[in-house]
# Entry
Amino acid sequence: MFWFQNNRDENIHQESCGQNCDCNCSRRWPCPPKPPCPPPCPPGPTGPTGVTGATGATGATGPAGPAGATGATGATGATGATGPAGGPTGPTGATGPTGAAGPTGPTGATGPTGVTGATGATGATGVTGLTGFTGATGPTGAEGAAGATGATGAAGPAGPTGATGATGVTGATGPTGAAGPTGATGATGPAGTLPQEMFSAYSTPAQAGTDGQPLIFDRNGVTAGTAISHTANTAPVTISQPGYYYVTFHGTFAPAAGSSYPLTLSAYLQQDGTAVPGAGTQHTFQSDNDTANLSFSQIVQVTSAPSTLEVVGSGGGYLYSDAAITVQQIGTSS
# Structure
């Protein structure tokens, strides 16, 4: 089939030129002698490609020849240049040794808690064990504190009134004596005068007061007479004559820093270390910035001289300023 197709193509070409010369003869088929060939013909158009013939059967494989001796391994050649992109991939190299294990990764987030399973049935109650022996009685505890005194019971009914005794006999009235003569009227004496005894002391700058201690008055004000005295920058006012005295006090108070609230402060008058009834005042403070003016007035009696008067602050730490005390005699003892 191959020969036929080639010979046909060659004849077609020779016929198209109108001549048959050995210049165009196939080497498979020798041509007879011919005169010299004219100049070559211009190439004709290429004919259509013929149908490809069927592939012939593959012949039997011959026996394998004996394996030749393996030659010595040659030196490793230099690495060739990298092939162009897209070229065939070379054979995979041998697997390298396994690398060292990498560090452990961070622990993942805890997954959501699963649904709680249903509660199992309650098991049967076990047999009650035997009662143990009673332990020895412990020692008697200490006697507890005495309880509060109970309320006083109601007063019992009044007993019956005793019988009134008999009235004694009235004695006879004696005779009235004769009236004596009226004496002469004496001369009118001079009008009496009350001694002017008065005193005042004060403290202007703010000072720290101590709970239960008397206030200090650092200045003396007006002094009249000798019955009332005071030493500057001390607390007591001394009265050296018996009589009745009118005492007044006033001052501005504030709680000390860091006090606990509410804080109730009091100011009251003491005479010879004893609080004078009705001569006191108090105020409840709510913060460090709270201030209040405390004042009182009262009449005191001095029966034994000398007698001391003091103004005492109590209730906690405090500051006081613009404090003043005035004492004035208003009467003498009869």
User: Anything to note?
Assistant: The first helix runs from residue 2 to 17. The mean pLDDT is 76. The helical segments are 2-17. The chain is about 5% helix and 25% strand.
